[in-house]
Amino acid sequence: MVASVLVKLPGGEGIIRQADGEIALTHDVSLERGQTVQPWDIYTPIRLGLGDERMLFGGLLPTGAVSVEAVEATGVRKAAMVGDGVYAVIFEDGEHGDPVLGYRDAEGAFVHRPMPGEYAHEPVTDAEEPCPLCGQIEYELYFVTEEWRAGRGMKGTDSFEPHPLIVCRVCGHQEHVGGIMRARGPEPGEEDPAARAARLARVRAERAVQRWYADKMTLLGVTFPIYAAEGWPAWINGSGSHNSDLTSLAVAQGETLPDSQPAARPRIEITTSIAPRQPGEITIAREAFAARIEADGRHELTDGLSDAAVTLWFRAGRRRRAAGAHEAPVGETQIMIDGTLEPFVMVGSSDAHWVAVRRHHDLTVTITARDMDPVSLDVEPIADPNGRLLGPEPVEP
Q1: How do residues 217-237 score in pLDDT, each as one tens digit?
Q2: Lowest-confidence pick of 177-186, 220-229, 320-329
Q3: 282: closest CA among 197, 224, 337, 359?
Q4: pTM of the full structure
Q5: Contact (CB, 8 A) for 68 and 47
Q6: Pick the CATH number of 1-111 from 2.60.40, 3.10.450, 3.40.50, 3.30.300
């Protein structure tokens, strides 16, 4: 017995029934194999990355549903292709969290995805973000129980607590609650101004020492040129690795060096990467642009919100940033690198903030900047990374 095609999208992606009877999502229906429906929750959408910003979603239609509406972070609404009780759709927005999918019956009414168990639940009374599918603020929090879910504590012990599930009461859209970290400082009145100033000074000094040693260890693992803009103070602002090997380093730059920690919004950040299997230049640029949207225009979070309301706030912010990155202009700019003007793919505008990306020899160079003409930059490898990026060893507090 061979696999049978249930849904085939124009690019060859779709849903198949494998020879063993399993329903599977695949990027090529002719391959007769793919990512199968999860037996513990058969109505959870399956996902497959298609490269760059595209993600394929699909799965089983809930009982009574005959159509599926997908809503991308950009607000674009598209109909999934359905057939034989299954559906498939491609999201092209670069936001690959919980997909926004609305299931409808023949009359156009919403059909909710069945849950794999009976759970205690309660309304989310402090939510502020409207549902991305139906626009309502009507959520229920379900306290799931299965150990296969993500959660806190150690699985197999009494300490494990699965993360709850947020469900829109109107349309059934689901969001998984993640782990929420809440920092607690001294309560008002617990600390006098002098003690607070001394504590913060001590913390800054300790962080400066820790950062210096961490940056020194990072530079020991660098095996590639580190690019930075000439004429600007620079400091390490992040790194990435693959299989324990350092594959990228971000250098932040501004008019002056920060006192003890990186500035929240450096004028320039240049990331040099040798990471394998990277997405295309536009995808890299949009992801970096979206991160800068968060730094420059973040919506304030109301104090005292529940974990469910905070989760909805975070997810709405991610969708806003993805939408903003897709709405930004895309083009090409010339930037001086290694002494020659070279073309970079650019997202954004030089009179606001922008990101430029270039495949340069065996490297990927990503430049994020604000309020400056890209042509004004002169980008070169740092001749002495230790001397320029580390500076003198700080004194132990």
Answers
A1: 999 999 999 999 999 999 999
A2: 177-186
A3: 359
A4: 0.82
A5: no
A6: 2.60.40
Beta strand pairing call for 120-123 and 110-111 = unpaired
d(CA 264, CA 306): 27
Q: pLDDT tens digits, residue range 37-87?
A: 999 999 999 999 998 889 999 999 999 999 999 999 999 999 999 999 999
Distance linking the first and last C-alpha atoms of the chain: 72
Locus of tokens 């001590």: 202
Q: Which positions ≥6 away from 225 have C-beta within 8 Å? A: 272, 363, 381, 382
CATH of 115-179, one of 1.10.3470, 1.10.10, 2.60.40, 2.20.25: 2.20.25
**Rounded distance between C-alpha atoms, residue 371 and residue 331, angstroms:** 17
Q: How far apart are CA 261 and CA 235, in angstroms?
A: 9
